[in-house]
Amino acid sequence: MTTWQQLVQQGILGTERQPTAPTLPAPLDHLWQTEHTQPSPNAAERRFLQSAAILAQYETAGALPLALDARPGLTVTVPAPPDTLLAANPRTVTLLHQLLADFDRKLVVEWLHHAARSGVQLPHDTLPPLLERATKEHPLAEALAPVLGPRGRWLLAHHPTWQIAGAEPIEADHWQQGSPHARATYLQTLRQQAPDDAREQLSAVWTQEAAAERAAFLATLRTNVSAADLPFLEEALCDRSLNVRMVAARLLALVPQSALQQSLLRQLTGYLKIERRWLKRQLSVTLPAHFQDEWHEWGLRDQSPLAVRIGQKAGWLVQLVALIPPSALVRALGVDAVELLELIRASDFAEALVTALIEGAEHHQDYEFLLAELGHLLRLLALSQVAQSEFVDRFARYAPLLPAAERLTLLQRYLEISRRRAFSDWATLQQLLRHCDELTPALTQQLLTEELPELLQRNTRDYGIGRILLDLAYQLAPAGYPQAEKLFQRRQGEERPDYVDRFLQIYRLRQQMAEAFVV
Amino acid sequence: MQWQREQVLTLAPDQASLKAAQGLSAPTKWSALGHNATTVWGECQGSGKTPYQTAIDLAEPAFKCSCPSRKFPCKHALALFLLYADAVVDGSDAAPPVWVQSWLQGRAKRQTAKEQPHIPFTAPSETTSPPNTAAMSIDSKTADRRATARAAKVAAGVDEVTLWLYDLVRGGFIEAQTRPYSYWQGMAARLIDAQASGLATQVQQLGSIVAAGAGWEERLTAAVGRLFLLLEAYARIEQLPAPLQQDVRTLIGWHQSKEEVLAGPAVTGEWRVLSHTLEQEETLISQRVWLQEVTRGDFALILNFAHPSNRQTLDTRWRVGAEVKATLYYYTSAIPLRALADGVTHHAAMRPVTAVDQVTDALHRYQQALAHQPWLTRYPLWLANVVVGVTTTDPAMTAFVYDEEHHLLPLSRRAKTVWQLLSITGGQPTQLFGEWLDDGLLPLGLWHEGRYWAL
């Protein structure tokens, strides 16, 4: 124990319990010896305090720098790899600093999307605050991952708690030692980058995995599924687990070259036939006569799992329809998605078959069919034959599978149909907007020149207008900002509500961002 | 030199003002916006009928606003400044309106009055009118009486805190750790009554150390040692060199007046503005601005204090990353660092910096200073070509910098910008400026890849 440590120990215990101070090292001893030759009432305390004064100075004034190599656990820093993305221009950097100062997640995410599209890297000093927040906020993490660049990933590897899904380098350790979720994530990531490697790695451990893991890992092969996967998938189709077989069957149904898809289409075109009667075409439905052996392999059940009340044979047909990607069936029947839906709706078993087709569309992410269904609902909405809420619920359900442009087209059609009702029922429109990205310039123009002025004229002090404007501020096309500014031009002496200022402030920032990234 | 948005944001008196100002920094909120080379102005519609008239003199900067806010600068002034920084305000050669002109004229008059020669304390005979010797004699006697009375109060305070220290070490630090907040605060309050505010601050710091986590025992031992050394030094103050006497008096609680400091030698030069930090305690904000003379490399610390509700006494002239021409007057000290600045002009971007100190040199420089002023707990260091390191395996040192010889300095636990520093440097060597504290280096800025970064 050093003299300093002995002194600290005396300080902790107190001079009452430990009156004897440690002896100071030789060069210092004379400094207090003369002081304490005479006994005094506080001699022990004085001696401690003076020793502390002397030793503290001695330790500090004489300290030598520590050597990196002599300190266990400390190592040199391996430099970050060079940047591969373009540096952001100063205007965009200033804007990002501004957005981070008054952190508005939606605007920051928009900046990150701009950066990703422009192929620019984040300013290095903004990485720590963004990574800190992105660890807790998933939407931010999603937007941040593509623009982290080498510096961001390097920084991430040094921090003990920052984690951004999709940003970490894929490491074989995750596959060998990770949790089932981590392993599935690893496989999913690898599948995006090297589909064959992912399949091979899964194949190597296939027989050692439990059924739940087999099903979960197999499902990751949906990414980049191709004819190259057929042998492995066909082997999985014989798995002892029903869940695994179902996953394998759905994957095989996606591959046009697979025996399963070809057999499935052959059977379905036998059960579903389009016939011409008079001038009209109609769908003739023939139910299967018996449950075929191979259907067990495909994961079908004798009893229909659907909630719809139908017979056993209809249940088999419905399960077959749900298995096939609807676009494959549409092609096989020689119609388009809208027409097929109309024909099915006019047939027996309409409800069950539409449900099955939509299930297949959702599962296979076959968005054309979902678009046709939403279009159908819009037509019913125009005729007031369906409630707004039904369209909104379906839109919300299918939106993640639809391309952004298609979502906007649907929104525009919804606004045309329910023009008078859209803004009076803002909650409904808000739900639709939540599933859309930036509005098109045309739609923006329409809102700013027609709908909004009308709404403002009706009631200029409604709290709801504040909410509407706040939502729109983040979604109107940036090019429309001058129009918005004109709309809310303050007249001399007129007091303007705060929400209008907030709307214009956000909208203007978005316009500035768009302009800065174009430059 | 154009103001940057980040620089404007540092002028905000608090977070609420910052947020409010950002809300107002839309041109639609403003009318009659304009600016020229030295002034920005505009009118902002508030809740009343008449818009608030807001103007900024960019030279200092100084602010004027007709709103009733007591904050300084107010949200309108900040918002206007943000608009200017964002280049939203049009009209670079516009003539200011009458109300701006009259404000500028008033300022110019006050400035002229301020620039009249100082009347040095030591040379009253140089004043233009003959001094009233009788009145001076009475004043001098009153001042002497006051000084004697204060010295007696301070001496009593010193005696009391010495006995209090004896009690503290007699009972042991482990017992002190269980004491309530009032134990430390009570002693500090009695020292303030004894007009020994410097000692009071040190007693409060002891209380903070006890509650500050791992390693507190060692830091407390060192801190009580330093405090005792100060008390002993005060008892023998006549034996100390004059500059050190002033340090001891300052640490006890005597303050050098501005007039005294401004009567000292002037140091004119070009200064780099290396850092600008605000440290907020319960009822006090400390503004710390580190400067470095470009040619000689001398450091200077501009230190101001303000109550959180009234920041007008803080100095808004400093832009980190700039170089300014200024005349500085150092406070008397064995290691002169604190200074007053006068005539701050000509802001320009900082020219490249080449730090020369390796870790050993920098530490040695601090130790040399410590030999002259043993209570020096914050000291400026410029480190050359250091690399930032982090580790999760050593709880006593989670971040550090090391030089080419692999000598390292720990980063202070108070450093909040370690990750920013690491991110900017990317593991490459850098020129790092910071303050050496009792537990390590507090990074404040760096010269990296051709520009200065404030941390």
What features would you describe in this structure?
The complex is a heterodimer of chains A (519) and B (455). Chain A has 29 helices and 5 strands. Chain A is mainly alpha-helical. In chain A, α10 packs antiparallel against α11 (195-205), α12 packs parallel to α14 and α14 packs across α15. By secondary structure, chain B is an alpha+beta fold. Chain B has 13 helices and 15 strands. The radius of gyration of chain B is 25 Å and the shape is globular. In chain B, α8 (197-210) packs antiparallel against α9 (216-235). The longest helix of chain B is centred in the middle third of the chain and has 39 residues, at 133-171. A 6-stranded antiparallel sheet of chain B has the order 12-11-10-13-14-15. Chain B has helices at 5-9, 15-24, 75-85, 98-114, 133-171, 173-176, 181-193, 197-210, 216-235, 242-252, 258-262, 359-372, 418-425, and strands at residues 30-35, 39-44, 52-57, 62-65, 266-280, 285-293, 299-306, 322-330, 339-349, 379-390, 399-402, 407-410, 430-437, 440-448, 451-454. Chains A and B meet through α1, α3, β1, α4 and α6 of A and α1, α2, α5, α6 and α9 of B.
